Amino acid sequence: RTSARLYHEKVIDHYERPRNVGSLPKSSVHVGTGLVGAPACGDVMKLQILVDEETGEIRDVKFKTFGCGSAIASSSLVTEKIKGMKVWDAKTAVKNTDIAKELRLPPVKLHCSMLAEDAIKSAVKDWEAKRELRQQMKAANV
Ligand code: FES
Ligand code: FES
């Protein structure tokens, strides 16, 4: 009973060679950071986006996942999907059910792909909050 039999090869590929692993400078005004946890298992995922202020394009994405193989594969897959996307599209573009389908995750692993969806939303929210703050400061001429 090997895990290779239980998982679809696409999961294994993303798990063994995860794309876009790492960190972006959290302090950068152009970086949004999402940090989310899965209550079911305590696993944690950090996902960061670097956004072009002018165009709203996501220029870079990095993630770190302290979690199971399905969570790592899910985050790796979504970083590939949202790179180059407009930041406002990224919020709704990735559904955990689509990730699960693409990776053929078993039902017990659905929440692992949920982690990836939550992480993107959280990263976009953080970026939006930072931008909002910048605009307020600009308006107030701080
Ligand atoms: Fe615990 Fe996936 S979050 S099994
Ligand atoms: Fe925790 Fe998959 S088991 S994220």
UniProtKB/TrEMBL annotation:
Its cofactor is [2Fe-2S] cluster. Residues 7-131 form the NIF system FeS cluster assembly NifU N-terminal domain. One of its GO terms (molecular function) is 2 iron, 2 sulfur cluster binding. The keyword Iron applies. Pathway: Cofactor biosynthesis; iron-sulfur cluster biosynthesis. It is found in: Mitochondrion matrix. One of its GO terms (biological process) is iron-sulfur cluster assembly. GO terms for cellular component: mitochondrial matrix. Keywords: 2Fe-2S, Iron, Iron-sulfur, Metal-binding, Mitochondrion, Transit peptide. It comes from the Eukaryota. Scaffold protein for the de novo synthesis of iron-sulfur (Fe-S) clusters within mitochondria, which is required for maturation of both mitochondrial and cytoplasmic [2Fe-2S] and [4Fe-4S] proteins. Belongs to the NifU family. This is Iron-sulfur cluster assembly protein. The chain holds residues 39 to 180 of 192 of the full protein.
